Amino acid sequence: MKSQKEIVLERKILKMLSGHALHAAERIFRDKELQYLQEYANIVAIKRLHLNDHGPVHMRKVALNALIMTDLLKKAEIKLSFEKEDTGTFEDSVITILLAAFLHDVGMTVGREKHEHTGVMVAMPVLDRILTDIYRDNLEKKVVIRSMIIEAIVGHMATYRICSPEAGLILIADGLDMEKGRARIPMKIHTESVVGDIHKYSASSIERVIIEKGKKRPIKIIVEMTASVGFFQVEEVLIRKINSSTIKPLIELYAGVMGQEMKHYL
């Protein structure tokens, strides 16, 4: 059964969509196997490995982050792969981004190590079934979209060189899910000190992440934190992902402790 947070995020996502992309999102939200994969990914991440949220809420936040940035690029008249290469439409890019966001962490059902690669094997049956439903009469488009989604899954950890803006959006959208709520459950159930706690503590100090139109570039990201430990999350996680992203030249990045002067990174 979906949590209230999941339902709220789905409503926000649906409000941003129309037409074929809207119908595709509704199809994705109904898929029970995908939902079970996301839930089990979170069990492995939080209960077994003592990591932050990698489940249904996280994947929906990544989808929402990616869609907000995609919309800003569209308003700036920047074309994504399908339009630029004349292989599809803007809607096809949106559907690609949605599926990549909802599948990027399913490799966590196996474990953390190289989950971006094992995730492709786990995702493939779900991906084939959903794409067949959405693109029933267009095998060529199904093949192209499947390849781009695989690129986004493999590339979301910044360990693999990506080449499409769609994959670049997923890479950054994943890094942007760093607000304190993501560390709330791990902080509650794992109180003993272990190596790697800096990730939980830094995430718990991130108060808000804002994505809006930039002054000089299409996308402006502002990270507000309650303590300077949050800079670890920005500098060791987010900036590493932005540096590996195909859309880095389109990003402005600011971060800082609330009430103090913001650092201008990009």
- What percent of residues are in strands? 5-15%
Q: Could you tell me the radius of gyration in angstroms?
A: 18 Å
Topology pattern, helix = H, strand = E = HHHHHHHHHHHEEHEE
Task: Name the overall outline.
Answer: globular
What is the number of beta strands?
4
Strand order of the largest sheet: 1-2-3-4
Largest β-sheet summary: 4 strands, mixed
- Report, as a whole number of angstroms, the end-to-end distance: 41 Å
Which structural class matches the secondary elements? alpha+beta
Oligomer: single chain
| Low-confidence parts | 187-191
Mean pLDDT: 92
- Tally of alpha and pi helices: 12
Percent of residues in helices: 55-70%
Number of domains: 1
Keyword list:
single chain; 266 residues; alpha+beta; four-stranded mixed sheet; 12 helices; globular
Explained architecture:
With 266 residues, the protein is α+β, with helices and mostly antiparallel strands. The protein has one domain (4-264). The protein has helices spanning 4-15, 19-30, 32-48, 56-75, 81-84, 90-103, 115-134, 139-155, 165-176, 184-189, 197-204, 230-243; strands at residues 206-213, 219-225, 251-257, 263-264. Helix 4 runs antiparallel to helix 6 (90-103), helix 4 crosses helix 9 and helix 11 packs across helix 12 (230-243). The radius of gyration is 18 Å and the shape is globular. The protein starts with a helix and ends with a strand. Mean pLDDT is 92; it is low at 187-191.
